[in-house]
Amino acid sequence: MKRLKTFLLCGCAGSLALALTGCQEQAQTAEPPRPVRTVIAKAAAIGEEVAQTGEIQANVETNLGFRIDGRVATRAAEIGMSVVKGQLLATLDPNDVQNEVLTAEAEVKSAEATEGLARSELERQRTLFAKQFVAQARVEEAEANWRAANAKLKVATTGLQTARNKLTYTELRAPDDAIVSAVQVNAGQVVDAGQPAIKLSSTHERDAVFNVSERIYTSVPNDIQVEVALLSDPRVKVIGRLRDASPTADPATRTYRVRIALPNAPDVMTLGATVTGRLILPGKSLIILPSSALTSEAGNPAVFVVEPSTRELVRKPVVVARYTATQALVESGLDEGDAVVTAGVSKLRPGQKVTFEAGEVAK
């Protein structure tokens, strides 16, 4: 029994000695401060370049239609045809309208004869009244008859002019130089007044039309300049300005249609050509960091920052506005002057002691 107690006392003493020795060795082998490479966080206003694909469209597109009902007699317009102002595009069968003109001409002649007879009778009655052969009442009666006949002549003349105008409505002519972009009637077809027949796209002014997201739509100022280039030949470029923008989003795509006016656009920018528009959105205050500075915390972006007083690492969550191939543009989470570690972040931990690499000084 006495030997057992002696053995236990010796064992405890040995264990205590080993523990003390281990603590001394751990204290002697404490991790030295790790040298790190840092960059000082500085905010700057940085614009974002946006590229969007669109197409060339005419600023003015017109749907032409006949002003009267009728049957299409001829159609000279074809899709893609270039037309000039006044060029005949289509006609209606004019027979019925020509008959109306003939009827109106006959009515005018009849009214002219009636008016001439009434005028002669009025002059005769005035002569007789001057010689005191008839009473004043006969003169007044003749004058009333002449006024009625004259009014009927004016009505007939107006009717003739209307019939002649209607005859011109059987012809559909181009109101301006343009390109035929759609044809919706054929010879022999019966059409109603105002029914779309031929669509023209004006060649005077051209626009680049883009469908943009809500973020771009709400960020673009009215005086923005857009560089528009042909997709097939990027060397062909025009600087355009915002002409108009749709006030509502497309219900299917949730995008907004934006039209960019293209002054003096070259002829190679034909209607329907695919183009690329580039613009710089107004900048906001961002901090540029190399991509190597990013780590994560709870699945979100974060960076290591050196605490100036203790030279210990602090992990800060950040909000990244956007990325480039080699950089991260941080929107929030950092303060001006923070010393952000830019290399080896996967081997670092919060609270770790660090020193700055040669040539670097804590700010």
TrEMBL record:
Residues 103-170 form the Multidrug resistance protein MdtA-like alpha-helical hairpin domain. Residues 287-346 form the Multidrug resistance protein MdtA-like C-terminal permuted SH3 domain. Keywords: Coiled coil, Signal, Transport. GO terms for cellular component: efflux pump complex. GO terms for molecular function: efflux transmembrane transporter activity. Residues 1-27 form the signal peptide. SUPFAM superfamilies: HlyD-like secretion proteins. Residues 65-197 form the Multidrug resistance protein MdtA-like barrel-sandwich hybrid domain. InterPro entries: Beta-barrel_RND_2, MdtA-like_BSH, MdtA-like_C, MdtA-like_HH, RND_pump_MFP. It is found in: Cell envelope. Residues 210-279 form the CusB-like beta-barrel domain. Belongs to the membrane fusion protein (MFP) (TC 8.A.1) family. PANTHER family: HLYD FAMILY SECRETION PROTEIN (PTHR30469:SF38), MULTIDRUG RESISTANCE PROTEIN MDTA (PTHR30469). This is HlyD family secretion protein. The lineage of its organism: Bacteria, Pseudomonadati, Pseudomonadota, Gammaproteobacteria, Pseudomonadales.
